């Protein structure tokens, strides 16, 4: 596949990295020499200095015959104009990153249809949805849904006193924990066997029936009760969207917003949320409002440092769980080591969403794991696929790949090597990015 990326920032670099590791031909356009130099140093991609909306630059890199163009600069209008122009030049799929509400699909504003852009990605919406998903799944560090919600993947931290710590995988009842597809240990991804010993501080990726996975929390880590109260730092678009979502779940929500005019808007626009005009790093304010009794604290201000500091403060004051938003992807691992429970990066979520869109077709969805070191994909068995009618052990999955579940109609199967792959089955597979193209060929 030939791909063109407009914007060489963090999103563009991460996206280029993922696509090149899968063997695709990638060109990045940016007008910043330093960004292009960093990309050339790290990645085997083509680069072009220029404006993303310059038609002559687009023609020089061959946008007209590219399979996919992603415009992911920090300026919504540049991204939309570039994606629109690329489609007119003949590009295959086009996608634009845009944060402003007016550019999102809806009854009043449907710019994606007007400009014939295939997909518009809003990082704020992705982030609020991701955090909402985490808040609904106590004890999980990450959650991904597959097969229209029938199958779920959860990332769980292994507690030192958990039932799993110190035991080989084969001793754990699969019907209670699902399938352990991978283990993250000290930043390294391990594809386990039955003899693999689970260690305290491991992070395990478990796949299973959605309604059963709550049992896995008890085996690997802590079992947390449903959340009732949430503090949100920051009443911007993310905080506002998250509060509305939590209101629908009937949770008690408090938003701390520094800007008084914005606080007034929030109090008038939200039905049950208590809006506090103040500084989220003010320990006295947090104490007075009962942070010690809250189930979760979510930091969504516009500054990574404020989010991290407020998260650490909330943890110090006794909140049960902390989730912080960090724009810089490289902060995610650092934040977790500081003692904050979860970190969410809008940039990484944007890359994940773009990859989902790029692979639509035989691969129905994708989740990027552990700083792009691995992926969980949902793929359908085509009628004439090479694997159709074969047992899983003979399907020829690339090394380092694990089939976590088979969905056949309404049935969810946690597979063994003797299970046969039938046309129309949906398979959820854990694998490495470099294996994606091989898997596509096997199942299409």
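^ structure tokens above, recovered residues below v
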């Amino acid at each position: 596949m030939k791909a063109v990326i407009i914007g060489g920032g963090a999103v563009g670099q991460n996206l280029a990295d993922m696509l090149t590791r899968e063997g695709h031909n990638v060109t990045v356009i940016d007008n910043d020499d330093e960004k292009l130099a960093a990309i050339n140093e790290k990645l085997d991609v083509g680069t072009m200095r220029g404006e993303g909306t310059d038609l002559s630059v687009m023609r020089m890199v061959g946008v007209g015959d590219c399979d996919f163009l992603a415009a992911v600069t920090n300026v919504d209008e540049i991204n939309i104009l570039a994606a629109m122009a690329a489609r007119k030049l003949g590009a295959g799929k086009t996608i634009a990153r845009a944060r402003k509400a007016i550019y999102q699909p809806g009854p009043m504003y449907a710019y994606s249809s007007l400009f014939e852009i295939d997909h518009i990605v809003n990082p704020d919406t992705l982030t609020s949805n991701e955090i909402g998903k985490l808040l609904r799944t106590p004890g999980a560090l990450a959650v991904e849904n597959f097969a229209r919600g029938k199958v779920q993947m959860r990332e769980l931290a292994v507690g030192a006193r958990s039932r799993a710590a110190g035991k080989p995988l084969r001793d754990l009842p699969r019907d209670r924990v699902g399938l352990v597809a991978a283990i993250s240990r000290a930043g390294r991804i391990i594809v386990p066997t039955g003899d693999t010993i689970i260690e305290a501080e491991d992070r395990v990726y478990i796949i299973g029936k959605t309604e059963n996975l709550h049992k896995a929390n008890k085996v690997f880590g802590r079992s947390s009760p449903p959340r009732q109260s949430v503090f949100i730092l920051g009443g911007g678009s993310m905080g506002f969207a998250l509060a509305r979502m939590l209101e629908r779940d009937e949770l008690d929500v408090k938003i701390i917003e520094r800007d008084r005019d914005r606080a007034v808007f929030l109090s008038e626009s939200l039905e049950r949320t208590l809006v506090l005009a103040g500084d989220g790093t003010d320990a006295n304010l947090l104490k007075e409002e009962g942070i010690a009794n809250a189930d979760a604290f979510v930091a969504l201000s516009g500054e990574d440092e404020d989010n991290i500091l407020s998260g650490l403060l909330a943890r110090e004051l006794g909140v049960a769980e902390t989730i912080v938003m960090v724009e810089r992807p490289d902060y995610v691992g650092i934040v977790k080591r500081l003692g904050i429970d979860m970190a969410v990066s809008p940039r990484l979520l944007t890359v994940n969403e773009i990859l989902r869109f790029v692979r639509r077709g035989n691969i129905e969805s994708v989740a990027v794991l552990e700083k792009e070191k691995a992926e969980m994909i949902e793929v359908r068995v085509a009628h004439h696929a090479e694997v159709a009618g074969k047992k899983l052990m003979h399907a020829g999955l690339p090394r380092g790949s694990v089939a976590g579940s088979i969905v056949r109609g309404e049935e969810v199967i946690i597979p063994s090597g003797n299970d046969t792959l039938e046309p129309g089955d949906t398979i959820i597979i854990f694998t490495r990015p470099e294996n994606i193209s091989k898997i596509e060929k096997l199942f299409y």
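The two ends are 16 Å apart (CA to CA).
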